């Protein structure tokens, strides 16, 4: 059975596993205060072109989203995202559980529109009763999006400009950041993202790590007592060196970007095959997530041999399914999938 269900079923890249094994031979101080974690942070700062950025390691994406949104958003405010955004759909109410309402705008192929964000904020402040309402307090987007699409540099700059005009920090979820930054046609670099966003994270769980995300604050804006806030959320890992070891490996010799590029190349081949065979691609997405609209007989035929991901119903007879490649997808697996289409 071929598996194209997600990009986190494989445990980790061999270099990451080797790094953890080597770390096991030494004793390190706890909670990310060790020299291995410090080394990983330095490599990330260099890759971001921000030598004074603050870098923090958390275990997973929901942790990262909840901790960051809760600490950057005023207690009286909510976070503005889009209807398909992860905090609005797939966080099990974690953001609301921490005390912040999710304020959802419409999405456009998984992306936020800066003019709609501006209109939302203008309308809010024009209401004479806005002191009785939930303020827009921060902005969340993901790169790449839930639908595998990516923001251009200009699009993200426009969103940041609106957010800052209304005194809101821009937070970019980078669970699949490696795939976004290496996608064909993308014009954004990690240095661009560090310049535009107030805080973002570099996803490891879905890009070659056993687990882990690197949260980066880029503008001397780390919330006060951030370690304490992380621990209040139950998100502080005592064996922080395990996270440090993984990101040290991922950011050695460009490994993070090389393995992400492998996933995108595999996805590009599959997309071309789908088009050639007459399938309907749901979104024009250049990353490792491919969305295809299928009827029930086709889904049943393919799922005899391939694990696919369910996304959403398209209509009464069609469903949007996801084909997801990963850093570990091989050419042979792609060949076998294409033969089954």
TrEMBL record:
Top-rank taxon: Bacteria
Pfam families: Beta_elim_lyase
Family annotation (InterPro entries): ArAA_b-elim_lyase/Thr_aldolase, PyrdxlP-dep_Trfase, PyrdxlP-dep_Trfase_major, PyrdxlP-dep_Trfase_small
A biological process term (GO) from this entry: amino acid metabolic process
GO molecular function, a single term: transaminase activity
Keyword Lyase (UniProt): no
Residue ranges of domain Aromatic amino acid beta-eliminating lyase/threonine aldolase in the record: 30-295
Keywords attached to this entry: Aminotransferase, Pyridoxal phosphate, Transferase
Cofactor: pyridoxal 5'-phosphate
Similarity comment text for this entry: Belongs to the threonine aldolase family.
Record's protein name: Aminotransferase class I/II-fold pyridoxal phosphate-dependent enzyme
């Amino acid at each position: 059975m071929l598996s194209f269900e997600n990009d986190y079923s494989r445990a980790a890249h061999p270099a990451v596993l080797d790094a953890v094994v080597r770390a096991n031979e030494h004793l390190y101080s706890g909670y990310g205060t060790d020299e291995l974690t410090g080394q990983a942070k330095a490599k990330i700062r260099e890759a971001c072109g921000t030598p004074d950025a603050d870098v923090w390691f958390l275990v997973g994406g929901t942790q990262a989203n909840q901790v960051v949104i809760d600490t950057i958003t005023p207690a009286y405010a909510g976070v503005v995202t889009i209807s398909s955004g992860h905090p609005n759909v797939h966080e099990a109410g974690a953001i609301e559980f921490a005390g912040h309402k999710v304020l959802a705008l419409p999405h456009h192929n998984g992306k936020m529109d800066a003019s709609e964000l501006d209109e939302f904020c203008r309308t809010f402040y024009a209401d004479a009763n806005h002191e009785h309402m939930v303020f827009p307090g921060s902005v969340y987007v993901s790169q790449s999006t839930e639908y595998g699409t990516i923001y251009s540099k200009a699009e993200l700059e426009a969103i940041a400009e609106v957010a800052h005009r209304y005194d809101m920090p821009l937070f970019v979820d980078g669970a699949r950041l490696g795939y976004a930054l290496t996608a064909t046609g993308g014009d954004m670099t990690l240095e661009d993202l560090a310049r535009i966003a107030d805080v973002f994270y570099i996803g490891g769980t879905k890009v070659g790590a056993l687990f882990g995300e690197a949260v980066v604050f880029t503008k001397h804006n780390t919330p006060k007592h951030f370690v304490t806030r992380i621990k209040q959320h139950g998100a502080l890992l005592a064996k922080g060196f395990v996270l440090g070891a993984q990101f040290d490996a991922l950011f050695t010799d460009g490994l993070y970007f090389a393995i992400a590029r492998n996933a995108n190349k595999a996805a590009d081949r599959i997309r071309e095959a789908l088009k050639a065979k007459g399938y309907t691609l749901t979104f024009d997405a250049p990353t490792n997530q491919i969305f295809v609209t299928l009827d029930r007989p086709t889904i049943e035929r393919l799922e005899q041999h391939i694990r696919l991901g369910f996304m959403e119903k398209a209509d009464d007879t069609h469903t949007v399914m996801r084909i997801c490649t990963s850093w570990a997808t091989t050419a042979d697996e792609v060949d076998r999938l294409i033969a089954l289409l």
